[in-house]
Request: fold
Amino acid sequence: MKKIKISSNNILLLITVALFVAMYGAGCIVYGSKGFTHLQTFLNVLINNAGLICVAAGTTCVMLTGGIDISVGSLVAMDCMILAVGIEQKGMSSITLMILILAIGLVFGLVQGYLIAYLQIQPFIATMAGMFFARGMTAVICTEQVSIVSDAFFVGLSNAKINIPFGIGAYTNKKGILQIPYVRPTVIVALLVVVLIYLMLKYTKFGRSIYAVGGNQMSATLMGLNVAKTKMLTYVLASFLCSIGGICYCLNTMCGTTTQAGGYEMDAISSAVIGGTLLTGGVGNVIGTLFGVLINGTISALVKSNGKLNSSWPNIITAVLLCFFIVLQAIFAKIKEAKKA
Amino acid sequence: MDSNIALTMRGICMTFPGVKALDNVDFTLKKGEIRALMGENGAGKSTLIKCLTGVNKFEAGEIHVDGIEGPIINKDTMDAQKKGISTVYQEVNLCPNLSVAENLYIGREPLTKIGTVNRRKMNQMAAQLMKDLDLDIDVTQNLEEYSLALQQMIAIARAVDMESKVLILDEPTSSLDDNEVEKLFGMMRRLRDQGVGIIFVTHFLEQVYAVCDGITVLRNGTLVGEYSVEELPRVKLVAAMMGKDFDDLASIKPEGINDFSKVPLEIEAKGLSHPGTIKPFDLDIHKGEVVGLTGLLGSGRSELARVIYGADKAHTGTLKVDGKEVKIKAPIDAMNLGMGLLPDDRKAEGIIGDMSVRENIVLAMQAKQGMFKKIPMAKQIEIADKFIDMLQIKTASRETLIKQLSGGNQQKVILARWLATEPDFLILDEPTRGIDIGTKTEIQKLVIKLAEEGKSVIFISSEIEEMLRTCNRMAVLRDGMKVGEIGMEEMTQEGVMHAIAGGDHHE
Reply:
């Protein structure tokens, strides 16, 4: 029987999970009458944030190496615009476009990763260039808002409901119609991404190299790991996941505009931090990030349920949470130092 | 190649910009031998090791390793490891955020059939390895949970498990206490008996004689000689390292003044304290006097000095400098009063790695002058050259970045920084830690010379011998309290030990 170790690393994760449960529980009590207790409310949080989950999973990997990727929001916007314009104005098939977008993600990551890993450019600067490039390209492709309506497959995918089996969470509404809770295909994709990235980080050489590089780059080099290659592949992975996230995001919004997904990179980073990933690298995991996204999503849902609060309140609450978590991290770091001395 | 030989290096040459780092150096290591690689700072020890491990590219020469045909050239450390040459560095080069098992096996993890890391097998292998080495460690815990000494031994375990023929230990003991050092030696002996050739780089002479079989001495990038321990006793070793007859270290103290009672006071501290670090103390320091602060590590030696200097603000008490009462709120006040502090943690508090030697030297002087009165370049160059010459700082040029210098030379640059401010009162906190014996002697001589010029010095060192040679008087600290003073006549190794350890007759 393996006992679960409580180290300062997984304490952060535990706190995140506990916070999510507490927050959601509080929502159920306070806004129970507004449907907060329905499973669908929770599933909607997942549906609304499926894209962000994919993106944040990539951001987490990058942050684990001690880097940062601020290009993801713009890349998502560019992906949406390519899909919208491709379908509506060029008459291309959505499947071709999705493959194209995934390929763009790979190339995008390859360029950023090369700059960072081999030319040793600061990740912040290199991905900032990527951020401006993708945002600029979005407007170059089209400055109008383009809604996606004509591709039957894509529209079908967007509206597809996957019902929760066995009647779990089903209820009859006031009009006497049976409501079966459902998720969208994007949620399945997002959860699959989380599981795969979790396994990748834990059980593959590449995954462990990511932790090693983030823990101590010099040591990783001296232990014979290929640091540059690890870093580059991580950025490729992040941009690829970002493209998957972009498609999910687009399936949710069904349009391309120049301004959408603004600040998405910051949402991804804050989710990772709230989920226990250290900005200095080496500590964190993607399950935490999932809960980070869920917490952010729950805050929005709570504010929406309240109905009276200004829509900027989620930002304020996220800010408070971020402070709370970085202070916690700092305290744990101090405790560790004190233990050593 | 002789079957008894683990490693030979022949005629290794290597040049850094402007400096011939290695000139035709030979090195031989037998199987089952612990060989000390000795030399002063800048003698080429690290460079030679780096040539061996592939970090540096050498220009000429050959390296032969047992079991491999023909000369080898390593591309990088991984390549060297594959050829059986493993290195453990002074700083533990492992990842604190990974488990002990992972640190042991990362890069060569056991895999499952589908190509993922077999964590269970890895943990089993790691546990077995720890058991073989007699270490009581839970390999699933993160590395950071363990002490530095254990981390160091885990690093060695990793190196050894690579089935190395040659194990390089580069100053592995500098952060360990005596007990831990002994454990490490036990491990080294066990490996030696298994036939591993060990290269041991250290600054501690006694450790050489405690554990080594042979000694190779380098000086200024050339080979002085390869000896067995028996044929090179301590004094001869030092002489070989320094390349001159050993100064009789005990005699560097001038016969000059021993009675300071008539000399005016430079520093007069009454009841100074800082909460949590040092209880109220009195301390008088005369002009031209060297006062040593002694006590165990953590007894408040550095803290006392920091309060005088204003690095920690004094909570109570008064301080007179040159007879006038002063209030020191921050170090800049102390600097303006003619004080200087050489901190003990030079990496964290001292050097600014990306600035040149010249810039590092004029730094404190510039700070004292104020931000807006830039010292003219000609003056900066003059000052830098003066101190490079005076302290014999080994650097390619005055514009070399300080991080490229060896540790001892960095220490000299920081010393130069404070000397450049022409202080009347200098606090030297462990000025000789981690530097070689030749440079140590030079710094000790310099302290005495400064005192002769009428400057007052607080000298803090863990080495009692060194304090005895340089100080006129010593203050003893214990548990954050000044418990007594030792005058010239009582200053013997034994007397000081007594005072540090406790017992009432000094209080």
Residues 29 and 192 of chain B are 12 Å apart (CA to CA). The two ends of chain B are 65 Å apart (CA to CA). Chain B has two domains: 5-247, 264-338+425-431+458-507.
